[in-house]
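Worked example 2:
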Amino acid sequence: MKHISILVPESSVMQAIADPQYLFSAVNQFRTMSGNKPLFDVKLVGLKKVIKLNDGLYSVNTSHVLEDSIKTDLVIIPALFGDMKIAIAQNKELLPWISQQYKNGAEIASLCVGAFLLASTGLLNGKKCSTHWGFQNEFRELFPEVELMDGSIVTEEHRIYSSGGANSYWNLLLHLVEKYSDRQTAILAAKYFAIDIDRESQSAFAMFQGQKRHTDTSIKQAQEYIENNIQEKITIDELAALVSLGRRSFERRFKIATNNTVLEYISRVKIESAKRSFETSRKNSTEVMHEVGYTDTKAFRTVFKKITGLTPIEYRNKYNKMIVN
């Protein structure tokens, strides 16, 4: 049983609270109808038992308040509404609780501009994040230590998830359903809610899609080469020669275009591919390591844990679809 806590902050978007509650409850119903046990225990958590939204137009009755002893595997932070600085100030009492749940081992997922509340905890410092495209400049001003992923639909790093703007949070919710259950259940949920579960939006390279929104054709050529040759040990000199640039010029242009160094980009592509193999096959860590071009077990383990927050074995055991829940 996965324990999910959906936060109900002040100045939050009603739909971003109701939609995840509806989705995970529907998945439980799908499983019950097919003779399986429910998978999710969903709670609404807030500072008070009743929280009013939209100037009192809506009221949400929470099932738990922060003082309650709550076991949770996933905390969902819904989108906020209005002035972000005011919304953060209104919900500052939630920040220590979110941080403590993460410290206790829970995963954290922010929907749309819920990323502002998540970033206020400091948990995103030095990490990547997605949010609504219309709030990117404000986000960067408030949280310069967070690497914002332009145009990204779903970003995942160190047990922290975030989504792009508006209804794209459904892609993140379906992504979580797939990870916690299986691909078939996620597809069923997508059909039930009439959501386009485009594989590309949740592919191994989803977090890199936004990094091709530039006009440097030479760098795009290098990116495509990296993604099409995951199993190879690619050098910076090799890539620079491929696009007929000097190494220094190539590295500078690559960083400007992608917001990653060349080596960071290569590592992330390889690890994202490795994650997908762990999720969808019975291959062991050594097999996956060689599949994505690593020959040193320690190096692979170190890079994998740096990006995902888990060792390869921990990740496989947690997310492999072939393990019966």
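The two ends are 8 Å apart (CA to CA). The chain is about 45% helix and 15% strand.
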